[in-house]
């Protein structure tokens, strides 16, 4: 026979375990965010990715994006690449989201405010 107290203890234990697992996954993702992107061969070296990055995490090396280690996971680089050459590793879709009410120039300008 189950009583309410037993159910609460089991529930809290599961929550604690889940929270711990979630935290560990989040920490792992934080440490490896810069490794989650793959630049495909059809990259044209236009530098849009480095210009739209709000934390200036992307530099260009040999006309290709190079990710530093302080990515915040906003995916602005992937969603604004004009030739769709930046992939998130293991992604299933090549679909991208662009807010048609905000231009790439507006994003770049907002990133360069002091």
Give a summary of the structure in a few sentences.
This protein is an alpha+beta fold. The protein has helices at 4-32, 48-52, 76-80, 104-111, and strands at 37-39, 58-61, 64-67, 86-88.
Can you list the strand order of the major beta sheet?
1-4
- The outline comes out as globular
* Secondary-structure content class: alpha+beta
Report the strand count. Answer: 4
DSSP summary: helix tally: 4
The largest sheet, given as strand count, sense and whether it forms a barrel, is:
2 strands, antiparallel
Unreliable stretches covering 5 or more consecutive residues:
none
- What are the secondary-structure elements, in order, as H or E? HEHEEHEH
CA distance, first residue to last residue: 64 Å
Q: Classify the helix fraction into a percent range.
A: 40-55%
Strand content: 5-15%
The rounded Rg comes to 20 Å
- Which whole number gives the mean pLDDT? 80
Task: Please give a handful of descriptors for the protein shown.
114 residues; alpha+beta; two-stranded antiparallel ribbon; 4 helices; globular
Question: How does the SSE layout of this entry go?
Answer:
Blueprint: H1 4-32, E1 37-39, H2 48-52, E2 58-61, E3 64-67, H3 76-80, E4 86-88, H4 104-111
Antiparallel strand pairs: 1-4, 2-3
């Amino acid at each position: 026979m189950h009583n309410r107290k037993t159910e609460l203890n089991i529930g809290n234990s599961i929550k604690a375990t889940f929270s711990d697992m979630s935290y560990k996954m989040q920490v792992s993702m934080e440490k490896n965010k810069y490794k989650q992107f793959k630049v495909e061969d059809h990259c044209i070296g236009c530098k849009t990715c480095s210009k739209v990055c709000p934390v200036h995490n992307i530099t260009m090396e040999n006309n290709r994006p190079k990710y530093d280690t302080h990515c915040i996971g906003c995916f602005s680089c992937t969603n604004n690449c004009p030739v769709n050459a930046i992939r998130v590793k293991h992604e299933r879709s090549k679909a991208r989201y662009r807010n048609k009410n905000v231009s790439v120039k507006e994003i770049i300008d907002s990133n360069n405010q002091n």
